[in-house]
Specification:
By secondary structure, this protein is mainly alpha-helical. 50% of the residues lie in helices and 6% in strands. The chain folds into two domains: 87 residues, Multidrug-efflux Transporter Regulator, Chain: A, Domain 2, CATH 1.10.1660.10; 41 residues, no CATH class.
Length: 143
């Protein structure tokens, strides 16, 4: 075994994930492994940073397809540098700003929405501001 490679259990322990999560990430095209002659997986050490990025992106609620697309922009011919990772992470900034704004609005309006008891979509500023859904017809139009 190459000293620059990690066994699945080693990578999982260092990354704080289950081995099954590594297999899932691999099936989704987020990480890769080398197979030995005995068909055992071996991961390069730089995979640890990829897994950390995947986990953080997941915690931020970023869809897996966007994570995959972002990881695809990393160089294939060399190990990604801190500059590469900074560039990649900066791409999430606008998304996070939008989510923060949405969560602040949710926090600020949640008590009023639950506390009022009206259950009216006409006056609900949270899920139907300005009653725009009324134009789509009666009933639960979002379903």
């Amino acid at each position: 075994m190459d000293a620059e490679e990690l066994l699945p259990g080693e990578l999982a322990a260092r990354a704080g994930v289950a081995v099954s999560a590594l297999h899932f990430y691999e099936r989704q095209g987020l990480i890769t492994s080398r197979r030995t002659s005995g068909n055992q997986r071996r991961y390069s050490r730089d995979t640890l940073r990829r897994v950390a990025f995947i986990r953080m992106s997941h915690r931020l609620g970023i869809p897996l397809a966007r994570v995959r697309a972002a990881l695809a922009t990393l160089p294939a011919d060399r190990v990604a540098t801190s500059r590469d990772w900074a560039r990649l992470s900066a791409g999430w900034r606008a998304d996070l700003d939008d989510r923060i704004l949405h969560l602040q609005r949710l926090r600020d309006n949640l008590a009023d929405c639950i506390g009022c008891g009206c259950l009216s979509l006409r006056s609900c500023a949270l899920t139907n501001p300005g009653d725009v859904l009324a134009k789509q017809g009666p009933g639960p139009v979002r379903l």
